[in-house]
Amino acid sequence: MEAIPIQVPLIVAAFMFFAGVYGFLTRRNLITILMSIELILNSVNINFVTFNRYLTPENLHGQFFSIFVIAVAACEAAVAIAIIINIYRRFTTINVENVAELKY
Q1: Which partner from 36, 55, 87, 88 sits 20 to 30 angstroms from 63, CA to CA?
Q2: Within a domain: residue 70?
Q3: Number of structural domains, the chain?
Q4: Residue 1 in domain
Q5: Tell me, what's the pLDDT at 13?
Q6: Which residues pair with 101 in a beta bridge?
Q7: Does the global pTM surpass 0.90?
Q8: Residue 75: domain span
């Protein structure tokens, strides 16, 4: 069986990263912005695992970093969704343009 060249996962990660950046910069819905951030973090995980596989396959440093990033992303998503729910309760919208001020 033939190994996958290193360019393939790096190209996939680059497409995911730029799709996340594009979604973050162009979307105005807070949920889609959160999903774009998750795309960016997942592309970083792909890079960690890919470089670990091709540079030091005997170590698992890339996988450990990926697990750490996944845990941080889960915490970030939970906090962000709680903030989005509070914003919706206060302003009855989750569009960034309609939420002009964030007061207590």
Answers
A1: 36
A2: yes
A3: 1
A4: no
A5: 96
A6: none
A7: no
A8: 7-91
